[in-house]
Design brief:
alpha+beta
Length: 461
Amino acid sequence: MTRLPLRLRVAVAAGIGLLVAVAALGAAARYIVGHELHAAQDRALRGRAADVARLSASAPALLTSPGALDAPNGGEDLLVEVLDRHGRIVARSAALGGRLLSETAVPTAIRDGRTSYGSAALSGEPLRLFAAPLPDTGGMAAGGAVLVASTTREIDRTVDRVQTLILLCAIAAAAIGGALAALLTQRGLAPVRRLADAAAAIEHTGDPSRRLPADGGGELGALTRTLNAMLSSLAQARSAERRLLADASHELRTPIMALRGNVDYVARHGADPEAMADLRADVDRLGRLVDDLLVLERPAPAIPERVPVALDRVAREAAAAATVPVTVTAHEPVWVTGEEAALRRAVENMVANAAVHGAPPVTVAVRREGDRARLSVSDGGSGLSAHQAAVAFDRFWRAPAARGRAGSGLGLAIVRATARAHGGDVEVAGATFTIDLPIGPSDGESSETRQRSRVASRTPR
């Protein structure tokens, strides 16, 4: 069943559902129709027995007159037989002919004095039989019983016809329902087929810049928008990857060429201290570039452990490692949560950027603003224009005045990547670069919390 097409499965399910529903309705209708017809027949038998009982009490002589007991019921005569208290026949309807109702069942009306219904067969014809006691006053039938019967053939035939009709309606409803379900499913799946064809074309060409066709709203429209957003993200990722490869190959070309030239010089003239120093510088520059690229490509979840980090202490350590004098302003301890080495590297990059490309004095300010920690690095230079500030954190970007100087152009990109990996961001205004991070618990608070957790875990519950 699961290997069948969806359209066929929906059609079969709809057909079976309609068939079962109509069949259940038919069973209920058959029961109700049969019950009502049998109830109407029982009322007719009881009413005819009551008429005969009144006639026996009021005018017993009329019981034996011809045709007195013949009365039609729905186009057919009721079969009536009157017995005396000894079970002998006193009168009978002409419709009985030579048949006897008293032979089909022993009437309990004479013996017990109560009415009763029963089923019988007379000459192969199914009957519904009603027996009722007669009053003790009257003629020969006093204290006897009256038997009234009617054939059930027409009732059974009517019920069978109803059942056959409902069965045919069930089959027709199942067929029509299945066909409509198949048609509606085919029309409903047409956008899905177009979506699948478009996705197959994108898969065949490998071009994530193409988009899936939008087919209206609803769930399918939401799915299309989500898939198109995914394709847009993939296209952006591929573009960033290609740009990274192009920039990296361009940036790696310079240190590799310098390294090759120094190696050729050493091969021709031998190793001297100056050549070896150049080789070490080229290797260090190449290593820093590769290391910076690896840092940028590391995803945020790759941070090994997030621990409380004193941002003011990180700022002082970065200032101490700077090549120029740096003033640090921090009026209170400011704690964040993250990887201390990554945060120190980001702050060192900001300080190095101000020292190399800015002008003295270089200052670092660490402060707490609400639930945010802010670290700002400023210098005395003119800073960046609005256009430069918009692209300052892109990979391999350098200001026109900084081109030709040392550096890979990845320092500020690492700062932004680190800030975002720690749930924050970085911004620039003129010559001031600010990294914004969420406040975290202090190391003492964190240790106290961990100690409480360990104590709670050992406490019996």
